[in-house]
Amino acid sequence: MFYRPEDGHGLPHNPFNAIVTPRPIGWISSRSADGINNLAPYSFFNAIAYVPPQVMFSSTTTKDDQAEAKDSVANIRETGVFCVNIVEYAARDLMNITTEHFGKEVDEFERAGIIPAECETIDCPRVPDAPAALECKLTQIVELPGKMNRLVLGEVTGVHMRDDCLRDGRFDITAFQPLARLGYRDYGRITEAFELVRPDE
């Protein structure tokens, strides 16, 4: 099968998200200029550089009560900071609560029953029990083609790692089984890892 996206795919559901998988989930926490905490998952998320460490996520939907994109993007534009919380399999139901389209006045931490912790290097809440959390300062927001598609780029200014996820000096993802987004409404979890050594190493 071949299709041009501009012509449509002719399938019951869009296959694009199922093709580009698995995708890590950035559980993005932010705070509005008015002090309202926000927590929302984004599966268009990844790390993009080592030195300095940098991450990205993109927002692809709009909200009736925001002039621009979603609450996360609006908050980050206002404050210049955000935190990426890594989602473990055990937190899948809590994360799913925060996928609901709440009004901008709603604190998703409260809705999910999560008591936020404060970040160390930025004025922003974080998920205290997350396996890892990356405190970030905004570097730029890029307007992408399409209605309200926004790419948010940030530099990592602080890193939290849960002690039980550190084994023999390594951050062991099998200790918490990261949740990954697949296509449609499907998710997966990483339960094992293997190593490949480059031929020239």
From TrEMBL:
Occurrences of domain Flavin reductase like (ranges): 18-173
GO MF annotations, alphabetized: FMN binding; oxidoreductase activity, acting on the CH-NH group of donors, NAD or NADP as acceptor
Transmembrane segments: none
Pfam families assigned: Flavin_Reduct
InterPro entries (alphabetical): Flavin_Rdtase-like_dom, Split_barrel_FMN-bd
SMART domains: Flavin_Reduct
PANTHER family documented for this protein: BLR2425 PROTEIN, FLAVIN REDUCTASE LIKE DOMAIN-CONTAINING PROTEIN
Name this protein carries in UniProt: Flavin reductase
Species name: Pseudooceanicola lipolyticus
